[in-house]
Amino acid sequence: MGDPLGRELTSLFVVVLVAALTPVVVGLLSRLRIPQVVVLILGGVVIGPEVLDLAHPDAIELLSNVGLGFLFLLAGYELDLAIFSQRPGKLAVVGWLITAALAIGVVGALAALGAVHAFVPVAIGLTTTALGTLLPILRDNNMLSGPFRPYVLAAGAVGEFLPVVATAIFLGSHGRFVGLISLVAMGVLGLLLSQVPRLSRGGRISRILSEGEGATSQTTLRWTVALLLLLLVVANDFGLDVVLGAFVAGVVLRRWAPPDVATLDRKLDAVGYGFFIPIFFISSGMGLDVRSIVEAPARLLVLFLLLLFVRGLPTLLVYRTTLSRPLRFELAFIVSTALPLLVALSAIGLQTGHMLPENAAALVGAGVLSVLVYPAIAVAIDRRLARAPDALDETRP
Question: Left, alpha or beta for 218 (phi > 0: left; psi -120 to 50: alpha)?
Fold first, then answer.
């Protein structure tokens, strides 16, 4: 019994050490402007079974899943549902629908040629946007301010949420019909949970919770974690991806948020980005089949370019009357960045036998490369623009 515990503790220590060293590495290589996410994943590759074999992903699987949950909880928390009744949200939905049609056509052609055997996971993967992964990058570079913010958040949220919905329906463990019913049930549960604060407003329970926000009881944070784990459990029991439960938890949490939202934001960042989320990214790197990528790099490069073609091209077209050309290119590179859902889709494809290990590794590797390259290009464009006053041109018809 001691050996398994020692193995898990050793793996966790090595993973946490990599997480602690990552900001130092990024600081030393500041001229290269490498996102922390990329260093975390590469660190996972180095300490994983493929290289040094210092840690094993199965030893930290639970913490990794909670980290994935926190990543999408924060993405859902950033989302203001009112956006979807406004122009940014409507354009984002139109752009994603065009992306989905384009993905079906491209992946269908590759499947006909025998280049792709997992049609559904790859097609869905090409429509995703890693908003949760992008948030720390965008925040660090002050790219979530001004009139451009709603377009980024709406496009990122749609590129994250709708692929999750598609995954629940088409790749659910209980079939498409049951997946659709489970999806509706999850939405109803989220709606009911969002009404809970109204029931206790002004009462004794409400006062107890508000008084304990900053004390040792940390009431708001504890209820946030409980909400996240509840919806992760429900999503898992429904045969849905845990990503959906986490995203719904974030949306519900936005309705639960106390008056002092800034304090809650700092706590969530501290718990999520300080511990759980780095573990998820390092674990993802530990599970990569690096050898297959080295042996067949062309497969990875094709998927990497397809992410930009399928996701970025519709962005350039849909926003042509709303955003200036430089901002359209910036947004195109932002929405073409994908990773967490690619990891989840690859895992599903491997579990069902629809995806070969080398194809799963190429898909995740393409996501890693997209996180390394596409946000860097977007940041470069943003710095060159320096948020010019006429960057947003909403006067055109």
Answer: left
Compute the distance between CA of residue 172 and CA of residue 317 in angstroms, rounded to an integer.
Answer: 32
Residues 6+ apart with CB under 8 A from 231: 186, 189, 190, 245, 246, 248, 249, 252
CA pair distance 228, 244, nearest whole angstrom: 11
Q: Is the separation of the CB atoms in 307 and 107 below 8 Å?
A: no
Instruction: Identify the residue with better confidence: 245 or 300.
Output: 300
Confidence of residue 22 (pLDDT cuts 50, 70, 90): very high
Contact of 384 with 333, CB cutoff 8 Å: no
Cα–chain center distance at 188: 23
pTM of the prediction? 0.76
User: What does the pLDDT look like over 274-298, one tens digit per residue?
Assistant: 888 899 889 888 877 788 788 878 8
**CA atoms in the 13 A half-sphere facing the CB of 254:** 18
Give the helix ranges, DSSP H, for the chain. 2-28, 36-47, 61-78, 87-112, 119-125, 131-140, 149-170, 176-194, 196-200, 204-211, 219-237, 242-256, 261-271, 277-286, 290-295, 297-307, 313-318, 325-335, 340-352, 357-385
Residues 6+ apart with CB under 8 A from 16: 275, 279
Position 93, amino acid: V
pLDDT at residue 394, as a whole number: 47
Cα–Cα distances in angstroms (integers) from residue 117 to residues 301, 349, 350, 360, in the given order = 17, 10, 12, 11
What confidence tens digit (pLDDT) does each residue in 50-94 have?
889 999 888 898 898 888 888 778 777 777 777 778 899 999 999
Cα(132)–Cα(88) distance, rounded to whole angstroms? 19
SS3 of 272, please? helix
